[in-house]
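Email to the structure team, subject: Toxin-antitoxin system antitoxin component (TIGR02293 family) model.

Hi all, the expression group asked for a predicted structure before they design truncation constructs. Nothing fancy, just the tokens so they can compare against earlier work. One-line instruction: predict Toxin-antitoxin system antitoxin component (TIGR02293 family), return tokens.
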Amino acid sequence: MLAFTDVADILGLPARDPVRSAFALIIEIEEGLPVGALDRVARLLAPGDAQFKYRLVPKATYERRKSTHRLSSDEGSRLARVARVWGLARDVWQSDDEARDFLFRPHAMIEDKRPIDVVIQSEFGAELVADILERVKYGTAA
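Reply from the structure team: attached below.
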């Protein structure tokens, strides 16, 4: 299981003293994650794809969000979900490139859909992908 502090690090959120908590991350999401967190996660997951961030927040909405510097709570939740699965994939594969390969390649256990698409689609999809990652990590069938 990925720690909430790891998700906050992936999002590029500043460290809070003395300890970051799950509730601190929930509050950050509800108050609106910075637009920079979206840019950061998009660069981490798809460094060669300038359009990837628009899969998480539509382009017109992204342009509006740049003026307020904050994402909506729904957009932030989706971004945090992607960041959490990215962190899990990196933990399992121990390599950004291999984590990307896993996330962007169709997988038989999710009806040959790409894990990243399933994660973006819903929280339930993210749990399915996290389950696959845990199976790989702990050596059960995946």
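Residues 8 and 25 are 7 Å apart (CA to CA). The chain has one domain: 4-138. Ping us if the truncation boundaries need rechecking.
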